[in-house]
Amino acid sequence: MINKVFWITGGGSGIGSQLAVKLAKLGNIVIISGRTKSKLEKTSKNDKRIIPITGDVSNEKDCLKISEFIIKKYKKIDIIIFNAATYNPGPIENINPKKIKSVIDINLMGVINCLSGVLEHMKKREQGHLVFVSSPAGFTGLPGAGIYGVTKSALTFLAETLKIELKKFKIKVQVVHPGFVKTPMTDKNKFKMPFLLSSDEAAKRILSNLESSNFEIYFPKRLILMMKFLRILPYSIYFNVINKFIRLP
C-alpha cells in the first residue's frame, strides 16, 4: 500500500500514531488530526509525509475544514481511518448527561462529522476506503463499559450498513475490533486486561489487513472469538455468565 493519501483521526497517540508512522514509511501521505497540537507534532516530527492538523472531530466545521484542505491540496482522500475516541468507564446507571454527550459527540458524531465532508468526494470518484476503529465492547451489554460500549455498538452498526450501501460506489468499508491495547485510554482501566497488546502491535495487525477483502479486522483471536460466542448465547444464559464472572470495581 503506497502512494495513497490517508486521513487518520486521533493520530497523535496510541494506534493512530503508530499507524501514521508505519504508513508514511511505506511512501504514503498521512494527514493526522487531533485536539492536542503537541501530540500531533511529536508523531510527525521525523517524517515530512505526516501532516499534522489540529481539529476536534466533535466540531463539524473542523472536520469539513480538514477534508477540504486535503482534497484541495492532494486532489483526493484515498483512505480515512476513524480512530479518534474517548473513554469514560464506569457504571452507566449513574446518569451524567454532560459526560455522556461528550462521549457520543466524539465516538459517534465525530465519525459522522468526518464522513460528511468525505463521502460525496469518494462517491463521485467511485473510489475510497473507510476504516472504522470500533471495539468488542460494543458486541453485547457489559457492566462497566459505560456509554463507550454503546457508541462502539453504534459504530459497528454504521460500518455494516455502509458496507452494504456503498458497494455500488466501489467504496471499501472495514471495521476494526481490537482487544485490549495499551494506550492512554486503557490506562484508565483499574482491572487486569487479558491479552494486552502494545499500540505498535495493534497497528501492525491493522496494517497487514488493510489490503485484504475482510470486512472485519479483529485481534487477538482468543479474546474476540470468546466475546463473539457470548453474543450468540440465549439471554438467559448470557446474563447468568456475565453476572457470575464479571464484577464492577
Structural summary, described in words:
It is a single chain. The radius of gyration is 18 Å and the shape is globular. Helix content is 46%, strand content 17%. It contains nine helices and nine strands. Strands 3-2-1-4-5-6-9 form a seven-stranded parallel sheet, with helices on both faces. The chain has a single domain, classed as Rossmann fold. The chain has 249 residues and is of the alpha/beta class.
User: What sort of overall outline do the alpha carbons produce when their principal axes are compared?
Assistant: globular
Q: How would a textbook summarize the main sheet? A: 7 strands, parallel
The end-to-end span amounts to 43 Å
Overall pLDDT confidence: 93
User: What's the β-strand tally?
Assistant: 9
Widest sheet, order of strands: 3-2-1-4-5-6-9
Evaluate the radius of gyration: 18 Å
As a percent range, the share of strand residues is: 15-25%
Helix content: 40-55%
Name some characteristics of this structure:
alpha/beta, Rossmann fold, seven-stranded parallel β-sheet, 9 strands, globular
Topology:
Elements: E1 5-9, H1 14-25, E2 29-34, H2 37-44, E3 50-54, H3 60-74, E4 79-82, H4 97-107, H5 109-125, E5 128-133, H6 146-165, E6 171-178, E7 181-182, E8 197-198, H7 199-207, E9 216-219, H8 221-232, H9 235-245
Parallel strand pairs: 1-2, 1-4, 2-3, 4-5, 5-6, 6-9, 7-8
Helix pairs in contact: 1-7, 3-5, 4-6
Characterize this entry briefly.
This protein has 249 residues and is an alpha/beta fold. Helices cover 46% and strands 17% of the residues.
